[in-house]
């Protein structure tokens, strides 16, 4: 089971040695590849070897590179590891529009319910009730734009009346960073199970190679919001993204979330959501397993 997330924020040489990632900085640190879920490379002076890249693909490790603002901008994914990729692709391509709308309805409902949980958890029970009422009324394809209505209320209540997602501030920087990390985990899982990420349900941009990942991240976003809200409450958000907060956001992949009545790490829950998508493609849209919120805590492994 993968359980490590690695942030490379200083110059380093990354290479392969006996199925281990070898990190050469001031010290030399070997890490078993079978333990690694994601590697985020944000330092500009990092060298990676070709054998390591091949091994990362074979082990299903996600490698993220960052831009000049230290936000993830590129992703290395395994190629054609699933044994029935063509079968899955046919399912995706043959999916009817009404079926896509029903699946999107389930996703939006659960996203709003998770947002409502966080508002209630943060002491805003009246606003939480309004969101739960919105969730109950989501229609096929979300034709009444309940998702947008919920977001307009949710972010203002959680982060203050003056807050807007378009503003350039520490909260939005943390949210964007965290969403990028979670979206990369969704993309990783989609590819591992043979799905073509470009074929989305609601997201259909011709310029986006990861439309399906943008669909499935939605009910998982509130876990990022929870971490950022708690960090802000504890006065741990300076004006810029610090290595400490970035490491917390990367480590979010190992925090608990509820799925199908059980507690899983975020990474394991994403895998189960993607696995259930095949059953939802060929059957009832309610076969899709979506996450429910839990307080922020690292998942215990047994």
Automatic annotation (TrEMBL):
Gene Ontology process terms (BP): defense response to virus; maintenance of CRISPR repeat elements
Entry-linked Pfam families: Cas_Cas1 (PF01867)
Annotated gene: cas1
Complex and partners: Homodimer, forms a heterotetramer with a Cas2 homodimer.
InterPro entries xrefs: Cas1 (IPR050646), CRISPR-assoc_Cas1 (IPR002729), CRISPR-assoc_Cas1_C (IPR042206), CRISPR-assoc_Cas1_NMENI (IPR019855)
Similarity field: Belongs to the CRISPR-associated endonuclease Cas1 family.
GO molecular function, one term: DNA binding
Residues that coordinate or bind Mn(2+): 147, 203, 218
Native source organism of the sequence: Neisseria dentiae
Keywords of the record: Antiviral defense, DNA-binding, Endonuclease, Hydrolase, Magnesium, Manganese, Metal-binding, Nuclease
The protein's Enzyme Commission number: 3.1.-.-
Annotated function: CRISPR (clustered regularly interspaced short palindromic repeat), is an adaptive immune system that provides protection against mobile genetic elements (viruses, transposable elements and conjugative plasmids). CRISPR clusters contain spacers, sequences complementary to antecedent mobile elements, and target invading nucleic acids. CRISPR clusters are transcribed and processed into CRISPR RNA (crRNA). Acts as a dsDNA endonuclease. Involved in the integration of spacer DNA into the CRISPR cassette.
Highest rank taxon of the organism: Bacteria
Names of the cofactor(s): Mg(2+); Mn(2+)
HAMAP family: Cas1 (MF_01470)
Protein known as: CRISPR-associated endonuclease Cas1
PANTHER family: CRISPR-ASSOCIATED ENDONUCLEASE CAS1 1
Alphabetical list of CDD domains matching this protein: Cas1_II
């Amino acid at each position: 089971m993968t359980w490590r997330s690695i942030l490379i924020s200083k110059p380093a040489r990354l290479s392969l040695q006996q199925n281990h990632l070898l990190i050469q900085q001031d010290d030399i640190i070997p890490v078993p590849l079978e333990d690694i879920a994601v590697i985020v490379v944000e330092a500009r002076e990092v060298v990676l070897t070709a054998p390591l890249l091949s091994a990362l693909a074979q082990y299903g490790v996600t490698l993220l590179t960052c831009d000049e603002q230290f936000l993830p901008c590129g992703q290395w994914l395994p190629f054609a590891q699933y044994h029935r990729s063509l079968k899955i692709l046919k399912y995706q391509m043959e999916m009817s529009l009404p079926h896509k709308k029903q699946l999107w309805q389930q996703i939006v409902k659960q996203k709003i319910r998770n947002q409502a949980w966080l508002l209630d958890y943060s002491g805003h029970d009246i606003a939480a009730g309004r969101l739960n009422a919105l969730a109950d009324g989501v229609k096929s394809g979300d034709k009444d734009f309940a998702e947008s209505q919920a977001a307009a209320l949710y972010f203002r209540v959680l982060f203050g009346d003056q807050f807007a997602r378009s503003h350039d501030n520490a909260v939005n920087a943390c949210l964007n960073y965290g969403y990028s990390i979670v979206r990369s985990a969704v993309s990783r899982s989609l590819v591992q199970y043979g799905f073509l990420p470009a074929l989305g349900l609601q997201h259909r941009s011709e310029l986006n190679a990861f439309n399906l990942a943008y669909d499935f991240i939605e009910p998982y976003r509130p876990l990022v919001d929870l971490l950022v809200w708690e960090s802000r409450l504890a006065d741990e958000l300076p004006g810029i993204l610090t290595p400490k907060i970035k490491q917390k956001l990367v480590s979010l992949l190992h925090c608990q979330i509820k799925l199908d009545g059980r507690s899983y790490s975020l990474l394991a829950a994403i895998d189960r959501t993607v696995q259930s998508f095949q059953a939802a493609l060929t059957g009832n849209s309610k076969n899709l397993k979506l996450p429910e919120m839990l307080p922020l805590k690292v998942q215990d492994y047994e």
